[in-house]
Amino acid sequence: MSAAASAEATPASAGSLLGRKVHVKVPATSANLGPGFDTLGLALARYDELEVEVVDSGLEIEVHGVGEGEVPLDETHLVVRAMAHTFARYGRELPPIRLVAHNSIPHGRGLGSSGAAIVAGVMAAKGLLEPEVEISPDELLELATELEGHPDNVAPALFGGLTIAWVTPDGPRHKKLMVHRGVSPLVLVPEHEMSTALARSLQPQSVPHEDAVFNVSRSALLVAALIQSPELLLAATEDKLHQSYRAEAMPETDRLIRRLREAGHPAVISGAGPSILVLASDPSERADAARVVEETADTAWQALPLAVDFLGATVTPADDA
């Protein structure tokens, strides 16, 4: 069913969905990847998982792991908001549900936690509405982008791998690409958080033409490096559009990125920061980068060697999960 046709859908009663239960799994993501600001994103093998069951009445939410005791347990919970948004798109009200979330994606660290929550809600709604309502991949991306504001995080969370996202008059679109098997991401997570809104507020309204040209060349090179020539990743991750402007808000991140790059490692801000993504060309380089961090970092950083997730978000009947 298309989004345009959905407005005429007949609202379903909660009873028609009663007892349906789905399991959703969504990967972490790293957006921008250096030069690909608001365009490129990579799915990473660290996951938030949840189960949603349609019940007789009320709204019950349990959160375990990251965010436990911190995130709201009512209709303002981001997963619930995304579910309600999706149900409304197809002419339905969100039924009473019980939601149990098990989170491992760090919050406020530039690893796509909000995008993962939105994608989890959209996918949970998809699982509960099918087969009566069919939601296409483009519609999934559109629904998630409407809540997230831009597609660079939600695209890899939905589809996995490396994604190129762009916006058209007809909505957001994406292209998924497979990543060279040698690419070995290392994510460095500090103890402190960073507001995405603050990071974006540091961006200038315009940039010099030569800086734009610089980033166009590096973004094109980065796609080639990630899919077939990882030895080019250091040069391909250079950026002049956003990272230098954000450095003042995350000086420890900036210092560590500079040290890693001086040592030959392709390190960039992950998303809005303050985490760092190192796109090592093989596992041995990843280990070398971790040693650089251990030897030079002024504060504690959690080093997470993560694989690229190639599957993206999944939704299955809970009994089959």
Automatic annotation (TrEMBL):
Entries under NCBIfam families matching the protein: thrB
Function: Catalyzes the ATP-dependent phosphorylation of L-homoserine to L-homoserine phosphate.
Domain called GHMP kinase N-terminal: residue spans: 78-161
Subcellular location field: Cytoplasm
Keywords, sorted A to Z: Amino-acid biosynthesis, ATP-binding, Cytoplasm, Kinase, Nucleotide-binding, Threonine biosynthesis, Transferase
Native organism taxonomy: Bacteria, Bacillati, Actinomycetota, Actinomycetes, Micrococcales
Keyword rRNA-binding: no
One BP annotation, GO: threonine biosynthetic process
Protein name: Homoserine kinase
Molecular function terms, GO-annotated: ATP binding; homoserine kinase activity
Species, as recorded: Agromyces bracchium
Membership in a protein family: Belongs to the GHMP kinase family. Homoserine kinase subfamily.
InterPro entries hit by this protein: GHMP_kinase_C_dom, GHMP_kinase_C_sf, GHMP_kinase_N_dom, GHMP_knse_ATP-bd_CS, Homoserine_kinase, Ribosomal_Su5_D2-typ_SF, Ribsml_uS5_D2-typ_fold_subgr
Domain GHMP kinase C-terminal: residue ranges: 238-296
Major enzyme class: transferase
Positions contributing to ATP binding: P106, H107, G108, R109, G110, L111, G112, S113, S114, G115, A116
